[in-house]
């Protein structure tokens, strides 16, 4: 089965997490680490730079800013919570199935 | 007992979300059915030995649709008829209990989901401000 498309926030978080794990990161590193093509990477980097989540020094190296760190923190908690909610939704589905089963005349 | 203001108004809100299955406008009939059945069973549980007319008014149903649901409930043995008065069976009590739990967790889930959306919005805000 084909893998799900990554959402915008996920890609941004992927880029930022590469910047946290390494120092002196160049564009190519980010490109390989985040599994993006060069054109796509440019588009995302542009957005992130404008939003001040990362900064670029005169040598062309990228560095994560404090704002970027808070973004990553919030994103991590978001993902965790999302998983929990998804689990609960699955639970709800089974509960609904139980109710439906009670309504069918075959059940004892 | 209150009207079912719960579903149709919120259906569109969750059209593109995780909770879509529970609120999808196209599948609204299913949810409504469970809710109507709950109203019928609750009426009978509060007033043992209700007549059809009484249930009809309490569950806000027309006679025709009441018959439809009552037949289903009698067939599934959630209700039993005795001299044209209706009583809740043990299975019916169990259903009612289960449905109330279901509804409660769904409401909790909805709140949690709203919280989730809020964090998502704050993330997007971080990305959009300069």
What can you see in these coordinates?
The complex is a heterodimer of chains A (108) and B (130). By secondary structure, chain A is mainly α. Chain A has a domain at 8-81: Winged helix-like DNA-binding domain superfamily/Winged helix DNA-binding domain (Arc Repressor Mutant, subunit A, Orthogonal Bundle), CATH 1.10.10. Chain A is built from 4 helices and 2 strands; from the N terminus they run αααββα. The radius of gyration of chain A is 21 Å and the shape is elongated. In chain A, 16% of the residues are buried. Chain B is mainly alpha-helical and 130 residues long. Chain B has one domain (12-128): Winged helix-like DNA-binding domain superfamily/Winged helix DNA-binding domain (Arc Repressor Mutant, subunit A), CATH 1.10.10.10. Chain B is 63% helix and 6% strand. Chain B is built from 5 helices and 2 strands. Chain B has helices at 20-23, 28-46, 52-58, 63-75, 90-128, and strands at 79-82, 85-88. In chain B, a hairpin with a 2-residue loop joins β1 and β2 (85-88). The chains are: A mainly alpha (108), B mainly alpha (130). The interface between A and B is medium-sized, with 34 and 35 residues.
Kindly estimate the percentage of residues of chain B that lie in beta strands according to DSSP. 5-15%
What is the CATH top level name of chain B? Mainly Alpha
Instruction: Write down the CATH topology of chain B.
Output: Arc Repressor Mutant, subunit A
What percent strand of chain A? 5-15%
Corresponding CATH architecture of the domain at 8-81 in chain A: Orthogonal Bundle
**Percent range of helical residues of chain A:** 55-70%
Strand order of the largest sheet of chain A: 1-2
Radius of gyration of chain B: 19 Å
Helicity level of chain B, as a percent range?
Answer: 55-70%
Shape of chain B: elongated
CATH superfamily of chain B: Winged helix-like DNA-binding domain superfamily/Winged helix DNA-binding domain
Largest sheet of chain B: 2 strands, antiparallel
Q: Termini distance of chain B?
A: 51 Å
């Amino acid at each position: 089965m084909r893998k799900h498309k990554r959402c915008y926030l996920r890609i941004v978080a992927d880029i930022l997490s590469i910047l946290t794990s390494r120092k002196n990161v160049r564009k190519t590193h980010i490109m390989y680490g985040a599994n993006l093509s060069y054109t796509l990477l440019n588009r995302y980097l542009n957005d992130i730079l404008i939003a001040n989540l990362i900064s670029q020094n005169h040598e062309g190296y990228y560095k994560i800013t404090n704002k970027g760190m808070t973004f990553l923190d919030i994103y991590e908690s978001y993902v965790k919570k999302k998983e929990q909610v998804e689990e609960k939704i699955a639970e709800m589905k089974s509960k609904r199935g139980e109710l439906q089963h009670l309504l069918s005349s075959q059940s004892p | 007992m209150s009207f079912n203001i719960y579903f149709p108004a919120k259906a569109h809100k969750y059209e593109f979300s995780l909770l879509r299955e529970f609120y999808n406008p196209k599948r609204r009939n299913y949810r409504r059915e469970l809710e109507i059945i709950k109203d019928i069973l609750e009426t009978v549980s509060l007033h043992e030995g209700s007549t059809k007319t009484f249930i009809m008014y309490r569950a806000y149903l027309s006679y025709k649709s009441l018959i439809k649901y009552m037949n289903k409930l009698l067939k599934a043995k959630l209700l039993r008829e005795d001299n044209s008065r209706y009583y809740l069976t043990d299975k019916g009590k169990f259903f009612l209990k289960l449905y109330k739990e279901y509804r409660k967790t769904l409401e909790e889930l909805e709140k949690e989901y709203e919280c989730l959306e809020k964090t998502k919005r704050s993330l997007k805000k971080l990305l959009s401000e300069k």
